From TrEMBL, chains A, B, C, D, E, F:
Its cofactor is Zn(2+). This is Creatininase family protein. It holds the Pfam family Creatininase. Belongs to the creatininase superfamily. InterPro entries: Creatininase-like_sf, Creatininase/forma_Hydrolase. It comes from Fictibacillus terranigra. PANTHER family: 2-AMINO-5-FORMYLAMINO-6-RIBOSYLAMINOPYRIMIDIN-4(3H)-ONE 5'-MONOPHOSPHATE DEFORMYLASE, 3-DEHYDRO-SCYLLO-INOSOSE HYDROLASE. It comes from the Bacteria. The lineage of its organism: Bacteria, Bacillati, Bacillota, Bacilli, Bacillales. Keywords: Hydrolase, Metal-binding, Zinc.
Length: 241, 241, 241, 241, 241, 241
């Protein structure tokens, strides 16, 4: 159910019944020649719909801006600082709690948001100990991803506009993918990228971290289905079901 | 053109050519029994598309949360404080400027955002004197609104979920309006509402400020067309055309 | 009664009896060749005295600095940012509440302060729901002003060092007005001034928005008497009288 | 010269000629039964006038609120936090510098402001290395005070509403002193007051720290004349005269 | 070389020669019955000395407080919020840069600091693009740790007071370890700990995450030697050697 | 007792028994050719140990960074802004209170920290009225210092790397003093240093304010013993013993 399509006359009962709000949050960020700037928004949004369908959660409008320090110098990227993002999410959480929600699921499509989401969640926990705030970024897909991928990952944590993320998009938002433009660009990410600030233009000009040409809808489906299953399960556990 | 559907390979040229970014910004807020919580988001978004079509502007993804202090205690409202909203928009503006935009149009669908938008615009002007930031909220429609409306306005500045705003929705986002639920509820807004903080639950239980049953698509069209014409003209003037 | 002339031995009883504090707040800002930089301070202060006389309020010392972004580049202007002003007023409000006041009237002589005053008032309301904070800027004078003025207004919202404000000064603080220097300077304020930050030096070199030579004490008296009447009434209503 | 009585047409030349702005800053604070709440404001203001007369400085309107943590629980006290006060003064300093002043004298009538004044001065120095900001609180009067006083001081640093401060008021603002109400109240200030936060109600109910009945205009004159001489000299040295 | 043991007469030359500052940063935090609260401080400090010896870096005094949200309710833990820690480190970085350092190594002994360190590093990079700030937490020890450990890890990211960390302490700061008190306590960490704020008292009463009785100096040595080798190499690469 | 050498299993009982935490806080700052940059840290730390021995207090790890605006341009100085320092100490205080401490003694070795310590103490008092926070900087040594010193003080408040502070170091941390490098350098501190920001490089190149060659361990001992006696007494009084 899309929260913003409800009216104030109908929504109260639904909040009380569901108690779960899902916020899709992504970013506007360079994703190579074949994926749109809004890739992370589309992923978060489509995932949220599927997760909501199985959990009875209410889907909030997508917050389409996030923290993109690493890629902020690429064409099209829009960066929100962690500090601003944390405050924004903290305010949202207060309203959601006051509205009667007790489970606030931040369904994240952009790894760069992880720090802000976790911090906002903790600040909300400090304020409302009975308010559970979740930050979800493709939980529990490590194994299936290893099985599915044909090329090694470019980095232990990052994946971006590559075989994997492109597959996600093919499965979840195919209409925004132009596979004819997909490229393979496996950069050498210097080890120092894990221990010092390194804007990505230092090691890639495409923002693609892998071989996007190998992406398929089937690969995406395999991983995403696991991700959804895990998210649904985590939410249900949190709700005490 | 929807900014987030571009890729980083195609967007740079379009930014340089257009130099204009439009951000639709609304709110999630109670709008009576016949209009959805996301009314201000839909209005801002649809207006942005129309204005962009005539100005060559790039439309950013909608920021669907705003400052709703007055209605925050109504079911479904989500409130962002002015301080958080200002910071968020300030960060966005910095990125847009660095990306090459020179005209940042905040197309506002929610009066409650006005203060934050103006403040963010000023802070960006202080930082980048050659960056024009606009905040637009139905400019120049006073006269046509007076002509169109059949009932007097409930307040000199506010209008909300009433004959006028409902007409806007009928014209711009008809699919989200349920006229069968429309009501007439003309509250007595105490004069003190202009001079002291008064949450709206003090004078209305419906959040409707007028007779929504009188709303028509035609009324909406008349006003919105003027608003669009004015916005287009203001943007062109700003761009020096 | 001037609050700061009381002693701590006498003031407690008066606070408890009155419960109303009036803070005159103005600005130091360019007001043309015939009005002093402190015009808004003198207006706020004199009004406060008159309003206090009729409401039993205690008059706090004038806060003589305000937000003057628009005119900050004119000689003599001193600008306080909204953020600083809000914090300052918020602190004051806390003290006033703790001292026993339940009605805090910010009597404003400078339109540029309006945003900060309203925001401070809301933050205080959030903190102390039984604390009423008022922000008053010539309430309810629209009609009488239209009747009195001989020249059309230069702008729908702004008036500055013009026929009207100069008349106010003639009535309230004649000794600071030098009518021999009064000028008529009706600038073309571009419509964009309502939708984007435009420092006033872009459209005026005098900071006078109208024909100050037409100002008279009588005009001032007519409007100010209405303003005072309205302020007194609003305060009494708030106090539940 | 009173800055706020100038107009924007006359002030520029005077700023360029003088380059010195004096801000009287005090507080609203309990001062016993014989001195008004605004004592520190009157002292700062009268001193500023005298110092300006001898240095050609322009006198800004008094900032009549300050940091009064220690006495905030006494009737009539109004407390501004250090953080808010620092920001406010920092903003003021920026405007004064941009207006052409190169010497900003914060003439302080209230010891509690000392921390905020020094911090604001340093922050302004960091921003504008050629901007001299002074914070003056009766400089160089230690010796003469020892000579003049008939009773020992209640504390090495604090003096308040006592023989000394009352004498200042008699000399500078006699009309606000009611010697018939003056009392002698020499509290035992615990040594811990220097090493831990101790609100003054812990050791005094009058807020008088000494024997105010011994105050005389002559005593005040002797000390104040030295203070003024020192302030004038410091300002002239700073100006390079 | 211990930075704080130098004098201002000798240090300038050493800064210019080395250009590398190492800040050991840890935390005061519960570490079970056999390890001291200052475990992370001792580890960071001892590592820093060894790394400095091989890189010519200057070792700053240990910052012995860090972000310990997860364990803050355990006896002895002291928590600094991320926001405060970031500001503190940002200030330090500014001074180090102004002193002539061009490589600022934050050698971290406490995983909970990771977010603050990275954020501070980015903010410093934004301010000084030629200033390299490193955040190091046992880099590149994953493989050797897998080889060394006899028991599986309790969590993919966390390790705490367990076989591994206790081995570190035995190798680096043996005098603070009391193996007679070491326990094995392998908690069930709920999967939700990765996706929602969960204070550790929810799943452990000892704060030990593993079998500390299996710790040996030899295990510690094997891992720590790799960690040091990697840190030295990363620093040298950064320095362009 | 060194707090960080305790374990979480042993510390709770000791906290409850003692209720007193001592935080040594100093700075990294230029102290002439004969004293190390960490002088204020060593002094604070050694004093803390002695005071703890007599009061049963628990000694926290030294916070070795402080506010050194005045000397920040001297080689080796590291400056933390007041604002950052206050936040850091405020966070620490919250944890200490929650851990069960009721007396938080900030034992200060660096005068420049005084403002931040006092402000943090007040903010903690506002939050926890039953939490006593002390800031101690050689209390009550004025008289003995006058007796001991052979040369007049260079300034009424400051002393730095001089006869006195060097004597402190000889008594408390002899191993870090190199008397063969001690110099006599009595600068002319301009009177304006008390009333306007003046970095110390304006009046000294050595950062020594006096004749360090006259320092002796005996002088140090005499003063420090008094300081310790006074600190012990103040703490005991605070604890109600």
């Amino acid at each position: 159910m899309m929260f913003q399509n409800e009216t104030s006359y109908t929504v109260k009962e639904k909040i009380d019944e569901s108690q779960i709000a899902i916020l899709p949050i992504g970013a506007v960020e360079a994703h190579g020649p074949h994926l749109p700037l809004g890739t992370d928004n589309y992923l978060a949004e489509r995932l949220a719909e599927k997760v909501a369908a199985r959990t009875g959660a209410l889907v909030l409008p997508t917050l389409p801006y996030g923290q993109v320090w690493s890629l902020k110098n690429f064409p099209g990227s829009i960066n929100i600082t962690n500090e601003s993002l944390i405050r924004f999410l903290f305010d949202m959480g207060i309203s959601l709690y006051e509205q009667g929600f007790r489970l606030f699921v931040m369904l994240n499509g952009h790894l760069g948001n992880a720090v802000a989401l976790k911090e906002a969640a903790r600040q909300l926990y400090n304020k409302f100990p009975d308010f559970r705030v979740l930050y979800l970024f493709y939980p529990g897909v490590k194994q299936v991803t290893e099985e599915v991928r044909e090329t090694p990952t470019a980095h232990t944590t990052y994946f971006h506009a590559c075989e994997i993320e492109t597959s996600y998009m093919q499965y979840l938002a195919e209409e925004f993918v132009d596979m004819s433009k997909a490229i393979s660009d496996i950069p050498h990410i210097p080890p120092s990228a894990d221990i010092t600030p390194i804007p990505w233009e230092m090691f890639t000009s495409s923002a693609v971290l892998g071989d996007a040409t190998l992406a398929t809808k089937e690969k995406g489906e395999k991983i995403i289905k696991i991700a959804i299953k895990n998210m649904v399960q985590l939410i249900k556990e949190m709700k005490g079901e």
